[in-house]
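Intended use. Records like the one below are meant for learning the mapping from a protein sequence to its folded structure. Do not use them to infer anything beyond what is encoded.
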Amino acid sequence: MSAKITIIVPVYKVEKYLDKCIQSIQNQSFTDFELLLIDDGSPDSSGEICDRYANNDARIKVFHRKNQGIAKVRSFGISQVNTDYVCFVDSDDYILKDYLKCLYNAVTQTNAKIAMCRHINFQDGEREPNSSDFKDNNGKVYVKHDGIDEYISDLENTEKYVCVWNKIYHKSIWENIDFPEGKIYEDMYVWYKLLDKANDVAFIDDVLYIRRLNEGSITHQPYSLEQWYMVDSKIDQLKYFREKNKQRLVEISYDSIMHFFWENINQMKENNINDSDVINTHRNEIKKLLIYLKPTDTYSISKIIKQYYIAYLKKIA
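Structure written out for the chain above:
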């Protein structure tokens, strides 16, 4: 039977966790899948572990590549997909046994282009999730039509929408979309394009994806100026929706830019980092974006005036 889903797993320095990740995929109740293990030049035994599993499971393909980073790995993985549907699993995470079945049923039965499920984060070395954490799983699926304005404004649940894992996609919506190279938070540069192209998104009200937070996770890294990529991604997002002539999404994008702009400034203060160049560069870019704001039912003239004041006159202590 030909595969219906391709699972892309980028692999780099995860010998400690890789067995559990691969086994959770092999043990899926939905079996019509192809697994791509893409070894990004791992210096540990991760590549050998991949080969061992591929030698015993015809559904697994392994690619060994020189180290180029997660963005190149994911983009390469997309280029190798020959199925209608694709999903991603990070190699230090794992999935519950009905993950693929639930996601596949959700997209095929609702005709949505994306389906997503809930997930749980846990700290490496601490208690792993168990059955009590999934007791509320009920299999309910609901679809949101053209809800992208809600997704991109929901900053409290950014992780759920932005990350490429915990979702299944119709391959067609990945056409002409690539992950940017050399940037952290690479998901933030593509997620809004995918949701915009999808229109309809199916949500599964079940926890099916388990995310491990380890020492190498971004969430565990001390603040650095690389986190200004969050602002850069939101600037790209605004320009994207401007070209699409979607004014409400331009408004929301601008508010998101300002949210991450001030969040970075506060983090710089807390960490005693002084770099006026990076602040001024982004502030000047924000000033240029003000011309895209105009009075609407959802964005008042008084709010626009306030944004001009903040961009031009508000002092940064």
